[in-house]
Automatic annotation (TrEMBL):
InterPro entries: Ceramidase_alk, NCDase_C_sf, NEUT/ALK_ceramidase_C, NEUT/ALK_ceramidase_N
Binding site for Zn(2+): H173, H286, E532, Y573
Membrane-spanning parts: 33-55
EC top class named in words: hydrolase
Co-factor: note: Binds 1 zinc ion per subunit.
EC number(s) stated in the UniProt entry for this protein: 3.5.1.23
Protein name listed in UniProt: Neutral ceramidase
Domain Neutral/alkaline non-lysosomal ceramidase C-terminal: 606-769
Organism: Oidiodendron maius (strain Zn)
GO cellular component, one term: extracellular region
Length: 772
């Protein structure tokens, strides 16, 4: 049972675990106060009055603290909370989300995925809070966002402060997590439907992370700082430079690079002991280091960066227990982690064409190369390397934070949210010309994919050819209504392949209604983007919001603007009008036509007064987007939501180790153990683990690795569908820092009994082995 910060006895407000202590102390306080002295008696009456106040409403901290010896929140102090929870849904028999590749079906787990929640509140006003969620998922989307808002509402009045206006659901844009949880039909087609189990794991974990953040609320300070991830730790390139070059030369000349190399970090430091509770950072790089042919769940490069940062915090004396490091996606649209560029894997030794990323006219053999591409390990080494580079830059910034950071100086916390229908929405450009956005549609270049994950079937980027090219997409395309002449004109010069915004059979295929949301904490403004803004779109958007914040006096000092996304409702891309004209993947996936990016900018700037310190209102709610969750769940006949049953082969038992590790290994070896398995969908073991490495320490087996560790890989294989047999291989890629010693590999599984269908847990152990 959580408490509002302002309901806590004053001396508990700075404690790390406000949940446990207040009950004890308030009882003690009430008893002792009554027996001690008349002065304290007066105080105790005030305490009782305070409690009555709490029951009747939500008093601000300022109303309760004047009688106490606790410091009053001073300017520049905030209520801060951080929390993290597991969102790893089904890791097998589910299509992964991101590459829209039907063949990318999960076979196991390399790294659990998490929701990281950051709460910031105005200590003098309990109504002013924001929640910034960073999900290790391909995107935020409205199905899970609705689920999260419902989950928060179900937690009761303590959580009533969190809702539509102040909860931002962003995804890291990784491409190696379970899919089948999105609201609209198009992404469901490429995930074979909607999996309630996959959806629920994300919703439940996100809500739990918010609960944990809420329960950790304490007074503290915020500061931000910037660094560039470049040089020897360079981690991103532009994957569509041909489109970027269409932006005006004088505008491009203002920037050294054709992607943003900057990383902005916000540090959460609590007042009680000066320890850091966590960091929330923004940096733009696609979560496409793990390749399209990888089938193990990971958090991609941002998952690695968070993992390394949180591991380092375990031994950092300035980090509080439970330190959370969230690495949020920024203007990711045209960025790639495949920093060696895109090459033809056809033996020609050539790079793909600059204009359309083809090799001999085809996209299929054109692949972006990460720094460790030659390892041929499905992107694992490149992913770790990109994540490590961002970590190195972030860690250096963190270590010099006190000397380079800027404090967030006023305690004002504001947010707004409204839904906007982008179908034929008219608005003025900055020069006053009226233009409009269009119902959602994808161009032919969308089906070409990108150099991070090329499309199939001969579609190419930068293509404006509307002739039939491929039977699959043509079939899908034929299911759609023919775009109206008005839509064709509106979307021009995009040739429309999928007119998703004008099709709603059996339910809506794509979003026309998007979330317009921004958050403000002091001088820091966070734009929450539903679309993947390209580099130049992000720059224009941030600059315009900063200028509007200055002209409307929203902040008391120079505003600092960051952009996070894709968030809230996944709305594909937002290219500039110039890039749109090129119709590479990003332009072809800019759903709402050539002026989409300017519509976002207009909506952000024209609503900015809702971020003003005195603002107590919200824009009109706007139209409610369709909620397809129920329809999807019943429509998704193909999506496997149930395991039939599990059996061990005759003569074996679940968890039995059938292929033992060798007796001894060297550091750096891969240590495999094979077990009689059961389907991991029987129990996701959220907050737990399928795998562990135990070390013999003073005669006792001690767990030293689990599912969270990048180096420990779980692979499940169904070996006999009819009889229900399966096997599990646990591979430990021993790290350079592995200590010599005696170890064993442990497998935690859950089997489903035939007929009865009950689920039983089991544990399997390998024999011991020595690492010398
Ligand atoms: C990052 O690089 C840009 C030039 O690309 C430079 O203007 C800026 O000052 C650098 N920022 C930091 C924190 O070094
Ligand atoms: C995975 O895809 C990459 C291209 O992205 C390719 O080079 C590699 O050979 C593939 N690996 C396997 C095992 O198919
Ligand atoms: C791709 O661009 C090249 C020029 O680099 C051009 O020769 C080729 O025709 C284009 N291919 C397609 C399919 O548009
Ligand atoms: C306003 O800007 C748009 C986009 O750059 C341009 O197409 C239009 O001609 C401009 N209108 C005026 C009146 O300058
Ligand atoms: C495609 O675009 C090019 C350049 O804008 C133009 O010359 C060509 O006519 C267009 N082709 C079609 C089929 O629209
Ligand atoms: C979905 O189904 C649940 C349970 O049947 C019901 O409570 C809920 O109102 C439905 N939601 C919508 C949007 O139809
Ligand atoms: C270990 O198991 C993994 C996953 O099944 C497999 O890819 C790899 O080849 C195995 N390695 C060894 C050394 O057996």
């Amino acid at each position: 049972m959580a408490h509002k910060y302002s309901e806590l006895p004053a001396e508990d407000k700075l404690d790390t675990e406000p949940l446990e202590i207040p009950a004890k102390r308030s009882v003690w306080a009430r008893i002792s106060l009554f027996v001690l002295s008349p002065l304290l008696l007066v105080t105790s009456i005030l305490v009782v009055a305070g409690i009555a106040n709490v029951i009747s409403g939500r008093p601000a901290l300022s109303q309760l603290t004047w009688f106490s010896h606790a410091p009053r929140a001073s300017d520049g102090q905030f209520l801060l909370g951080v929390g993290k929870a597991d969102i790893t849904g089904p890791v097998v028999e589910v299509e992964f989300m991101g590459y829209a590749s039907l063949g990318q079906i999960g076979t196991g787990l390399r790294q659990r995925i998490y929701s990281r929640a950051f709460i910031i509140g105005d200590p003098n006003n309990d109504d002013d809070r924001i929640v910034y969620l960073v999900l290790d998922s391909a995107m935020g989307d409205i199905a899970v966002r609705n689920g999260i808002l419902e989950g928060l509402a179900a937690l009761g009045s303590d959580y009533a402060v969190y809702g539509q206006s102040n909860v931002a659901v962003t995804g890291t844009h990784q491409h190696s997590g379970p899919g089948a949880w999105l609201n609209y039909l198009l992404p469901q087609i490429t995930s074979l439907g909607f999996s309630t189990a996959s959806y629920q794991a994300i919703v439940d974990g996100a809500v739990l992370s918010i609960q944990r953040a809420h329960e950790s609320l304490t007074l503290g300070t915020l500061a931000y700082a910037d660094t560039n991830i470049t040089g020897s730790i360079d981690a991103n390139i532009n994957r569509s430079p041909y489109a970027y070059l269409a932006n005006p030369a004088d505008e491009r000349a203002q920037y050294e690079y054709d992607v943003d190399k900057g990383l902005t970090m916000l540090r959460f430091q609590r007042a009680s002991d000066g320890l850091n509770m966590g960091v929330l950072a923004w940096h733009a790089v696609h979560g496409t280091s793990m390749l399209e042919n990888n089938t193990h769940v990971t958090g991609d490069n941002k998952g690695v960066t968070s993992y390394l940062f949180e591991q380092a915090a375990l031994t950092d004396p300035t980090a509080a227990p439970g330190f959370v490091a969230g690495f949020s996606q920024a203007n990711v649209g045209d960025t790639s982690p495949n920093i060696l560029g895109a090459w033809c894997d056809d033996g020609s030794g050539e790079m793909c064409t600059f204009e359309n990323s083809t090799c001999a006219g085809q996209t299929e053999t054109c692949h972006g190369r990460g720094p460790e591409f030659q390892k041929l390990d499905l992107g694992v080494s490149s992913c770790y390397e990109i994540g490590r580079r961002v970590f190195v830059g972030a860690q250096a910034l963190y270590n010099s934070f006190d000397s380079v950071s800027t404090p967030v100086t006023d305690s004002s916390v504001k947010s707004y949210h409204t839904f906007q229908d982008m179908s034929f929405y008219e608005f003025p450009l900055p020069n006053g010309t009226q233009v409009q956005t269009c119902p959602a549609a994808l161009g032919y270049g969308f089906a070409g994919g990108t150099t991070d994950g090329p499309g199939a079937f001969d579609f190419v980027q930068g293509d404006n050819n509307t002739q039939p090219q491929n039977p699959f997409w043509e079939l899908v395309s034929d299911l759609l209504t023919t775009p109206t002449p008005e839509q064709v004109a509106c979307q021009s010069p995009k040739p429309i392949l999928l007119d998703i915004g004008q099709m709603s059979v059996p339910y809506a295929w794509g979003p026309n209604i998007v979330d317009i949301q921004s958050l403000r904490v002091g001088q820091l403004i966070m734009i929450i983007s539903p679309s993947e803004a390209t580099t130049m779109t992000g720059r224009r958007w941030r600059d315009a919001v900063a200028a509007a914040a200055v002209s409307k006096s929203i902040t008391t000092t120079t505003p600092k603007v960051v952009l996070g996304g894709p968030a809230n409702t996944y709305a594909h891309y937002a290219a500039t009008p110039e890039e749109y004209g090129i119709q590479r993947y990003e332009g072809a996936s800019t759903l709402f036509g050539p002026w989409e990016s300017y519509a976002y900018i207009y909506l952000s700037t024209s609503n900015i007064q809702y971020l003003a310190s005195g603002s107590t209102s919200q824009p009109a709610a706007g139209p409610t987007p369709p909620d397809n969750r129920n329809a999807s769940a019943s429509f998704s006949l193909i999506q496997k939501n149930v395991v039939v049953f599990d059996n061990p082969p005759i003569g074996n038992s679940f968890g039995q180790c059938t292929t033992q590790p060798n007796p001894s290994y060297s550091v750096g070896d891969v240590i495999n153990a094979t077990f009689v398995g059961a389907n991991p969908r029987n129990n996701f073991r959220l907050e737990g683990t399928f795998t562990a490495i135990e070390m013999l320490v003073n005669g006792a087996w001690t767990q030293v690795r689990d599912d969270n560790d990048w180096s420990l890989v779980y692979t499940w294989t169904r070996t006999n569908t009819i009889l229900g047999y399966s096997s599990v291989v646990i591979s430990w890629e021993t790290e350079s820092y592995t200590q010599p010693g005696t170890y064993r590999t442990v497998y935690y599984g859950d089997s489903k009994t035939p007929v009865i269908g009950s689920i039983k847990s089991f544990v399997g152990y390998s024999g011991s082995y020595i690492i010398g």
